[in-house]
TrEMBL record:
Keyword Ribosomal protein included in the entry's annotation: no
Name of this protein: Ig-like domain-containing protein
Name of one Pfam family that matches: V-set
Organism classification: Eukaryota, Metazoa, Chordata, Craniata, Vertebrata
Keywords tagged on the record: Disulfide bond, Glycoprotein, Immunoglobulin domain, Membrane, Signal, Transmembrane, Transmembrane helix
One GO-annotated biological process of the protein: heterotypic cell-cell adhesion
Protein species of origin: Xiphophorus couchianus (Monterrey platyfish)
Record's GO cellular component terms: axon; cell surface; membrane; neuronal cell body
UniProt entry tagged with the keyword Acyltransferase: no
Signal sequence range: 1-25
Length: 279
């Protein structure tokens, strides 16, 4: 029977191969895996395998004679991005939780046999950040809420950019969803009523954080009947998904900002003076 190759076994054989020990990918993203042979060898074939509980499953291989071959079970999942005998790369498309695990690249050489290296794929899920802002009358200020949903549990951090302002009533809550993800919500009260910028950063494990910067609006008593006019500015960089804010009237002179996830990179400036005149 075929014996299972452990990751510990592979580590002792991988000194001649350059690869990443760990690759992080979000659900729905593509995960690149790559191996490079550091010494010139007579390589006959390069093979990729996925490590299962009791064995390894062949994903595909490349040889000079047969070219690229992807096994039927991985046809729609794996693609060669660099087919070579000294360096070989594949990409795992549209990553799911089932794709998590360790992968082997084997350089089958003559006369040395197989040189093996391992890369372990860690899959995470992250949605957000989502920011809500509402006006608080007692105590006066702005309630700012930032939330994110992910797996494993995401970390949510709110920061204020104005030097003379600070948060109060800072609290964080978590909720486990039926699909196994966890929603983390952080809520603070900004005591100052003037306009200021607030940032929210969310992250999972060691993945790069996603950040959102919004300008908390200032109340302006500039209308004849005393209606509060709110102006919102949302700033982001090219790597951040933006929340598109809409106003819902809750009671006279109180407006709650709700969000709808808008996955497009842009600079967003919303002025609601004309909107208020129509309500």
């Amino acid at each position: 029977s075929k014996s299972k190759i452990t990751i510990q076994d592979v580590l002792g054989l991988a000194v001649l191969i350059q690869t990443q020990q760990t690759v992080l990918a979000a659900v729905g993203e593509d995960a690149p895996l790559s191996c490079r042979l550091l010494e010139t060898k007579d390589v006959q074939q390069v093979t990729w395998q996925k490590v299962l509980e009791k064995t390894e499953r062949n994903i595909g291989s490349y040889s000079q004679y047969f070219g690229e071959t992807v096994n039927p079970g991985f046809k729609d999942k794996v693609q060669f991005t660099e087919a070579g005998l000294q360096k070989n790369s594949i990409v795992i498309r549209n990553v799911t939780e089932q794709d998590a695990g360790c992968y082997l690249c084997l350089f089958n050489t003559y006369p040395d046999g197989a040189l093996i290296a391992a890369t372990c794929l860690e899959v995470y899920e992250l949605h957000g950040p989502f920011i809500d802002v509402s006006r608080s009358n007692s105590p006066p200020g702005s309630d700012v809420t930032c939330s994110a949903t992910g797996r494993p549990v995401p970390m949510v951090t709110l920061t204020v950019l104005h030097q003379n302002l600070s948060f109060s009533h800072y609290n964080t809550s978590t909720e486990t969803n039926t699909n196994g993800t966890v929603t983390v919500t952080t809520k603070v009260l900004l005591s100052d009523l003037s306009s200021t910028q607030v940032g929210c950063s969310v992250s999972v494990d060691s993945a790069a954080p996603r950040e959102l910067l919004v300008t908390v609006p200032e109340v302006k008593d500039s209308s004849d009947d005393g209606e509060e006019l709110l102006e919102v500015q949302c700033l982001t960089d090219i790597f951040t998904s933006i929340n598109l804010f809409n106003f819902d009237t809750v009671q006279p002179h109180t407006f709650v900002l709700t969000n709808q996830y808008f996955n497009q990179t842009m600079f967003l400036l919303l002025s609601f003076t004309s909107l208020m005149s129509q309500i």
